[in-house]
Specification:
Elements (H helix, E strand, L loop, with lengths): L5 H20 L16 H26 L5 H40 L14 H8 L2 H11 L7 H26 L5 H5 L2 H40 L1
Length: 233
Amino acid sequence: MALIPSQVLRVAILLSYFSILCHYKALDMPAHQTYGGSWKFLTFIDLVIQAVFFGLCVLIDVSSLLTKGADSREQERQLKKLIGLRDWMMAVLAFPVGAFVVFTFWTLYLYDRELVYPKLLDNFIPQWLNHGMHTTVLPFIIIEMRTTHHNYPRRSWGLAAVCLFGIGYILWTCWVHQVTGVWVYPVLERIAPLARVAFFSAMTAVICIMYVLGEILNSYIWDHTHTEKVKGE
């Protein structure tokens, strides 16, 4: 038996995301007052995705508890729909976008932090909040993957959905630049137009790789768990 029930972990993670979002929105940052506000940053979009995802997980836990022992086909059908939506969000949004944010942020930060997170931001964002936005996302989503089995969609459909999300964000970033004349991330200011195309293509490829890695990790965790149970019997 797990030391901490998965339902309790989900509630704790959901509350941590609410706290992070509230503290982030309370920051008095000039970038939040310009066109697009917080929504032009992928980090903020990812935090919203994670909060919605874990909120859905908690809703399913509560619904399962309330309908336990009830003989209602309609309730069972609605619960299966929620579980299907949860699994889709895990596969297409929560894991690939979360892993992408953590990987790309810290890769660019370690190479040259001014490309993605200028030192000036230290005056606005405390270290704990920075890690809440760019570090703990990955262990949180891996904990969820480890405690609950998620059914992934067909890979071609999953990759298509991830690509659609990535291209949509790229177009949104370009539109913000068109309106304001400023790129959302400093790295985009420093490279030539052709290099931006290559950069956007590479980032789309990375988020697709994250999707495949999530699918492989999910299969490994649960195939391995199933094998151990069979051996134990």
